[in-house]
Amino acid sequence: MASVQLRPGDTLNIVWTSVQETPLGMKEVESNFAFTYEELLARLKAKGRVGKSRRSGTDGARFSRIVALATNAMRKGKWSTGADIDRDVVFNKLMRKFNELENHEYANITANAREALADLHESKHLKPNQKKELKTALDSASIPVA
Length: 146
Hints:
Layout (H helix, E strand, L loop, with lengths): L10 E12 L2 E12 H9 L13 H18 L10 H14 L10 H12 L5 H13 L6
Helix pairs in contact: 2-3, 2-4, 3-5, 4-5
């Protein structure tokens, strides 16, 4: 096992070698990563929150990820894997997840999810009763629709 000491102004260079399969056989690929002492110290002081949104672990944020998948699937008629969907089932599951949110979690729904829900409301993929149900949900979360 290697031991490394870093001091202010030092840079840690990490070289990582991986093997990738190509049509012509196996190939070694080398990746280089350089971290300064100051960068590493800042990341350690952040206590694991580097690059994470303040709301990444909230129910509203988890719902936002579901919105991204569901609205994309509703638009395309397929999941990202290529499997066909039943739009009624996807919509019902999306609304069930929304109804599971507590009112204070509405603030944690991301801007992209809010926009995707508003766009879904305006799309041709919903039945009139579904549009009405979605409009009621959007109004309760203070998400404007056209």
